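Posting this for the archive.
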Amino acid sequence: MKNYIKSELTPLLCRLGRTAAELTQDQLAAEIRVSTKTIAQFEAGNTNPQRRTREDIAAALAQRVVFIPEGPDGGPGVRLRKAGQQVPASTAPQSLPDIIGTLPEPTPDELSDGADRSARGRVTYLLDGMLPKVREMVGLLRDHHPTQAEEVAAIFGISSEPAP
């Protein structure tokens, strides 16, 4: 668990963070543009909002509180953020295409025989070979586990919607 929680945000941490920040459910909902019912149902443990909604809740709360990871002396929690304390950058997982894009460009030697033998080229080749199976997996998850389907699709940089 990171200080800027995203997908690990639990109903309890949401409620603790919101309470510590002295926000009502209405105020938090208005800030992230969701219904109060969405916040109330999540905090009660009755629903698990879309990943994006959980990320928005965590980002709003992270402006005001620091998420404390579980440790040997106790479970996870929150504490108020000090005035002027910088909010950590997002720690949400990037998609694989984004990560691959951070790899260095191939050198002329790695392109000498017409094939891209760089790390970026080899990883891109492997990812392209995996995408048909990933799309199939997302399709299987879509009907009964839409949140997980969306998360897998986001990691691989593909749509979770059915193909036209």
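Helices lie at 11-20, 25-32, 36-43, 51-62, 96-101, 119-142, 146-156. The chain is about 50% helix and 5% strand.
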